[in-house]
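ZP: hey, is the beta-D-fructofuranose complex queued? I don't see it on the tracker
AM: it wasn't, my bad. submitting now with these inputs:
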Amino acid sequence: MADLKKSREYEASQKAITDPERPAFHVTGMTGWINDPNGFSTYKGEYHLFFQYHPFDVVWGPMHWGHVKTQDFVKWEFLPCAIAPDQPYDIEGCISGSAIEMKDGRQLLFYTGMTKDNLHPGHVEKKETLYQNHCIAIGDGIDFVKYEGNPNVLASTAPKGSWLEDFRDPKIWLEEDTYYAIMCSRPEDGSGQILLYKSEDALNWEYVSILAYNDEKLGKVWECPDLFELDGKYVLMVSPQEMESDGYEFHPGYNTIAFIGNYDKEQYKFNKEIYHSIDYGIDFYAPQTVKTFDGRRVMIAWMSNWDCTSFKDPGKHWFAQMTLPREIRVVDNHLIQNPVREIENYRTNKKCVQQTICGDKYSEDVSFEGIKGRYLDLTINVSPTKEDSYRKLDIKLAKDDKHYFYVSYNPEEDVIKVDRKYTGARMDVLHSREFKVRDQKGNLKIRFILDRNSVEMFINDGEQAATFVLYTPLEADGISLKTMGEANISIEQYELKSCEK
Ligand code: FRU
C-alpha cells in the first residue's frame, strides 16, 4: 500500500539532484511521472497547482497528487506530495480532480478515488472493473487529511444506466454561496456526458443534471471538464478520448475542445454555439483553469499526450511538464490564448531584425546575427512584399547540423505544418501536425516560447496555439528562415532568464 510519508521522503531524497535538462520555467514533478493538472486554484493569496504524479517511476502508476505553488505562474515552488493512494477507496489511484479555498478558509481537494471494490450495493460486480468515486481531503496548503465520509460521491448517484467506471475528474467552483462541480461520466450508450452536482458545504453532494451529453459525437469520454464564464459567454472545456479526425480541426485519438455558448441556470444545461480545438499541437491535454486575483482566466495543461508517452530520454528521473499558463479570452465566439503576461518580467536582451528575404527551393536557409537560443520569447512576422510575392515560409528552430524543429506556412492554402521528425526522438512517436489558419493574404505572426525541450506557438496574437515537446540536444540553438519568393520578415527576440525553483 502506498504511504504518503514514504512518498515524501523519496521525493525529498531526489530533490538534491540538479537536473540540467529540467525546463527553466515550466512545472515538472519533483521526480517521476506527471500527467493532468489538478486543483489549479487560489489559496491564501497564492496560486496552487496539484497534478497527477507517480514519484517512484517515469511511467503512469498508482497516482499521487504532486504539489507546487506560485505567485506569478512562472516561478514555482515545490511542495511535498499532497496525497497518496493509501485508503481502500482510492487504493488504485487518487486520480484527477480540483481544489478550492472553502468558505471557512480551509483548502479542499476534490479528487477521484479509484478502487477495485464495488462500493455500490445492488450493482453487479464486474471482475477487474476499476470503480471511480469522488473523495475529499482537507488541508492547510501543505498537509491534507482525508475526509472520514469518503468516498462521498458515489458513481451510483449518477443518472440511471451510467457506468460505475469512468466517473471522474470533478471540477469544483463556488457561486453565490453554493458549491457546484462538474465531472465526466458515461451514459448507458457508452458515449460521454458531463454531470453537474451541487452542495452547500462541499462535503454533501446532490446530483443536479446532465450538463452536456455527447451523443456518440466528438469521441467517447470527455475527460477533465471545466466550465466558466468569460467575456459574457460560457466556456465548457473537455478532453475527449477516442476521437476520429475531422479535417484540419481534430486529429485521431486524444483532443481538447472548447465549447463556447451559454449556461442555462434554470435548466442547468450548457447550450453550445460553436466549438473548436484548444491547441493544434501534439503535446497538450487535460487543461484546467483558475480565475486570478485580478480577474483574469488562466489555463494550464499537461504538455504531453497519451499517444506519445512511450518515448522517454533514458537516464532521466522525471517525465513530462505542464504548459506555460495562458491567459484566455473569448473574442467573437473564439477562444484566444496568450502566455501569461508575467513571463514578460523575465525577458532580457532584446534583439530585432527587419529584412526582406528572397529565395527558391535551392536557396540556403537564412540566419540572423544574435537570433538563436533555447530559452526564448520570439516573435516572427512575415508579410508579402506585394500580392502573392511568396509561396512558402520555412522556420527552423533548435537547430544544429543534424537536428531542427520545422514549421512551414503555405499562404495559398493557409496551412501551417509542424514537423519534429528531426528533433532527436529515437522512437517513431507522433511527429507532425497540420492546421489551418485564417486567410490573411500571407501576413502571419507567430510567437514562440522556447524552454529547453518545448516549443509553444501562439499564432496571430493568440487566435490559435500549438504545443510541442522536442528532444533536440540543448546545444542545438540555431534559428533560420527560408522563403520561396520574396517576403518581409521582422523578428523580435527576448532571452528568458531562468528562475531558480
Ligand atoms: C486524463 C486522465 C483523467 C484521469 C487521469 C488519471 O488524462 O485519464 O481522466 O483522472 O488521467 O491519471
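AM: back. Residues 4-339 form a domain with the Tachylectin-2; Chain A fold (CATH 2.115.10.20).
ZP: great, adding it to the tracker
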